[in-house]
């Protein structure tokens, strides 16, 4: 067996394991969480940029500065133009970023520790609580006592 393979195989396996653990949680967030506050505002800017090519808020088409994360807005707008919903774009970019961070760590133990850190975000657990305690009579999750304080990862 090649010495390079022996050194990279456990690292690749650990990274794959991290992806397998993270993917269902990100999908859970996409399925059950409701983006709020700054995320919704940024998604509106990204949607308008994808649709009209103008950075604007609302349907006025008048250029308005206000998106706080320019590169993030541009990346979400590019994915929106390709047909990917804004919230899914944000989660997919976060998922990719988490995998990039984990891939840069040298040993498996550090990857696992970093994975636990990534999994401690309250947004994923807000989505889980929304799944466990559905709100059929309410339109928005922000009025639910378990999910009202959390905002999106935009």
From TrEMBL:
Presence of keyword Membrane: yes
UniProt keyword terms in alphabetical order: Membrane, Transmembrane, Transmembrane helix
Transmembrane regions: 12-34, 87-105, 111-129
Superkingdom as given in the UniProt entry: Bacteria
Record-given protein name: Uncharacterized protein
Organism: Caballeronia fortuita
């Amino acid at each position: 067996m090649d010495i390079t393979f022996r050194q990279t195989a456990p690292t690749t396996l650990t990274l794959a394991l991290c992806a397998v653990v993270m993917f269902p949680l990100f999908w859970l967030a996409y399925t059950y969480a409701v983006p709020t506050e700054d995320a919704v505002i940024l998604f509106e800017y990204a949607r308008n940029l994808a649709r009209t090519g103008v950075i604007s808020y609302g349907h006025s088409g008048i250029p308005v500065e206000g998106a706080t994360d320019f590169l993030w807005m541009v990346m979400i707008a590019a994915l929106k133009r390709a047909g990917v919903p804004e919230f899914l774009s944000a989660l997919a970019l976060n998922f990719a970023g988490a995998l990039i961070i984990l891939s840069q760590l040298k040993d498996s133990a550090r990857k696992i520790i970093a994975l636990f850190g990534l999994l401690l975000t309250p947004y994923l657990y807000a989505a889980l609580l929304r799944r466990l305690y559905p709100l059929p009579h309410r339109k928005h999750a922000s009025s639910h006592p378990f999910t009202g304080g959390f905002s999106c990862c935009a």
